Input
Amino acid sequence: MDIQRIRQDFPILDRTVYGKPLVYLDNGATTQKPRMVVEAITDEYYSVNANVHRGVHYLSQQATELHEGSRETVRRYINARSTSEIIFTRGTTEGINLLVASFGQEFMQEGDEVIISVMEHHSNIVPWQLLQARKGIKIKVVPMNDKGELLLDEYEKLFTERTKIVSIMQVSNVLGTINPIKEMIATAHKHGVPFMVDAAQSIPHMKVDVQDLDADFIVFSAHKVYGPTGIGVVYGKEEWLDRLPPYQGGGEMIKQVSFEKTTFADLPFKFEAGTPDYIGTTAFAKALDYVKGIGIENIAAHEHFLLEYATEQMKEIPGMRIFGEAANKGGVISFLVGDIHHFDMGTLLDRLGIAVRTGHHCAQPLMQRLGVEGTIRASFGMYNTREEVDTLVAGIKRVSQMF
Ligand code: PMP
Output
C-alpha cells in the first residue's frame, strides 16, 4: 500500500492547522473524502441531476441508473443476496431507529426483551429506550471484562423465552474491541432470535460479509468509510424485511394509494419514503469502489500496524492509561494521562495540529463502566502514517510535561 500515493487523493490532508501540518486522527467520528467522491457529487449536480424513479425523461432515467447502480455496488460490497435487501438511509442512527421502530411495532410486546451490550453507542441504546417507554420492553446488557471484551458466557445466560432480538456493535468506537459477532449471531440463532449488527465502525476497517456472518440486519454510515455525509445503509434478510412494516410513509414507498386502502411498494422501496439522496448514493458507491481498489485487507493490515506501533510507544509515557486492550482490536486508542483532563489534552494537541476526539464518545454507559467521565481518542484511517503516530506521541509527551 503506497500511503503517500493515497494521501494525494485526499486534498484536505495537505492543509495546516495553527500553522502546523494537519494530523487527522478522528477517523472514528468521520473520515476524509478522496477527490473522486467529492467530484462525483459536483459532476452529478452539473450534468445529470433529476429526481429518480419517477421520470420518463432522459436525465431522470440516467439518475435512476446511477442510484440503483450504487445499490448494486453496496450489495456486492457486503455480499448481500439481492438489492432488495439494501435500504438507503441517512446513516447508522436512522437505520437503527428504522429497525427498532419497525421490528418493535411488529414483533415486541410488553415484557419482551432485547439484548444489547455495555459498550454500545447511544444510537443503539436510546432508540430501544424510546421503545421501552412506548411498549414496556426490557433491555438486557451484556457485560465486559476489564480489557474491554464482552463476556460470552454472560451473554448466553441473558436469553429467555422473551428475548426477541439482539443488537450489538461489531467494533467499539471507544475501545476498538472487535467483538466475535459471528459466534454471537450463531448463539442468538440457536435460541431462535435474530441479530442486528451495528457495523458503523467495522465496515471501514474490515471485510464484512453478511452471508458469512449470517447477520439478520446490519447498519452502517457512508461517511465513516470515505463516503459522503447523510447516507447510510440498512441491510436486512429479505424474509425479515418482508415481514416488517414501513417506517415512514410518503411518496416512493407505495404501490397504490386511496383514502380507503393503501398498499406498499416492494422491497427495498417500502422503507424509502420520499426523494432519496441519489447524489449521495452515487458518491458513496465511488467511495466503496475506492476502498475496494486499495483492498480492505491491506487497509486493515496498515491500521493494525499503526495501532501496535502507537500502543507500544504510548505505553512508555508516564501516567498513561489505555482503555481497551482486547486481544482482537481495531485502530482506535482511547486514553488518559495522569489526572490531565481529556478536554485539556485534546485542546493542546489541537494546537499542535493533531485532531483527536475527547469526551464520552456517545457511550456514557461505557464511561460509567470504565469509571471515567471521558477519554481522548485517536482513531486511524487508511491514510495515516507512522510519522503521524510519532507526532501524536511527541505531542502527548509535550502536553504531559506542561502539567
Ligand atoms: N454506532 C457506532 C459504533 C458509531 O461509532 C457511530 C458514530 N460515531 C454511530 C453508531 C452513529 O453513526 P451516525 O452518526 O453516522 O448515524
Residues 91-93, 121, 123, 169, 173, 198, 200-201, 221, 362 surround 4'-deoxy-4'-aminopyridoxal-5'-phosphate (CB under 6 Å). The chain has 14 helices and 17 strands.
